[in-house]
């Protein structure tokens, strides 16, 4: 069993409170992704789970056992960091075998475990190489392999792909997705800044802000039913447009949120909002139009394929059907067009778990 239960967890450095009343129930075998702005406490939360940081208050259970005072090496956890820190003078095989040698694992068993991990990560052809003769993605896979051979109950990843270039990120992301499938009983907790990694890898995403859990849910729950302006703006890229003041008044809300992909351009000024195009980006597959409708922030409208709209043009647009979100003065959701507000929108974290 590798379920994790975090109850009323606080982390303080002196009088700085970095994590505040964290409550999470993570099921055995789940893939959980932590997201949130820089400095919100993602790495600290991961490090308290691993035991690299102590807990100031609260309780952490792994597999039904309270581990607050259990040493990191005895928690059944393996952690993979952003910088992979391999031993440069050791081959791939020896890097992966190192922790097993330390625990005096028999030679034949080491051989079996390392070869199985190398196979899973497509590293078999490189076992005799030194790290300097590997690409960044291959090195990161060695770091993951080093963790796999220890057969952890819980895998912790802290932005493992952020040092890789775009193509390698995609390839290694797919390796991690395959890893998750091949280890269905292993719980994985993954920190990232990357929207695509969060949306594609996660069974559930935990959104953190200033050391507080803002919302927990499946990627689509967060995308479709953000419970706060913060989560609405944080999940999705480019981020949700927020229309306020007179622009929101017809919708009887303090703020109306519409994702760029949920805007549609209407001819002859017939849209809910109109303005001047200040900038447009053609990406080939789709395009983004930035329009000034008299708010501080430009409104972004996504169109399929190339756009006929360019700087200086006048443009008018509306949400597609019910695809908009209404928020009150406090930033709480009021429901959208035909979509009823989710039940109990105020206290999502503990109740939904
Ligand atoms: N040893 C420490 N002493 C004091 N404050 C610390 C210490 N370690 C971290 N912090 C503070 O705790 C907060 C959370 O840091 P943490 O590294 O968990 O953020 P993060 O969400 O992982 O950010 P990033 O996305 O930039 O990696 C930050 O404000 C940081 O300055
Ligand atoms: Mg961090």
UniProtKB/TrEMBL annotation:
Topology with respect to the bilayer: Peripheral membrane protein
- Keyword annotations: ATP-binding, Nucleotide-binding, Transport
Q: Name one GO molecular function term.
A: ATP hydrolysis activity
Know the name of this protein?
A: ABC transporter ATP-binding protein
In terms of PANTHER family, this protein maps to: MALTODEXTRIN IMPORT ATP-BINDING PROTEIN MSMX, MALTOSE_MALTODEXTRIN IMPORT ATP-BINDING PROTEIN MALK
Q: Which organism is it from?
A: Pelagibacterium lacus
GO cellular component terms, semicolon-separated: ATP-binding cassette (ABC) transporter complex, substrate-binding subunit-containing; maltose transport complex
Give residue ranges for domain ABC transporter. Answer: 4-235
Pfam families assigned to the protein according to its UniProt record, in alphabetical order: ABC_tran, TOBE_2
Family annotation (SMART domains): AAA
Give the protein family. Answer: Belongs to the ABC transporter superfamily.
Cite the residue spans of the region called Disordered. Answer: 333-353
Q: Where in the cell is it found?
A: Cell inner membrane
Organism placement in taxonomy = Bacteria, Pseudomonadati, Pseudomonadota, Alphaproteobacteria, Hyphomicrobiales
Name the Gene3D superfamilies on file: 2.40.50.100, Nucleic acid-binding proteins, P-loop containing nucleotide triphosphate hydrolases
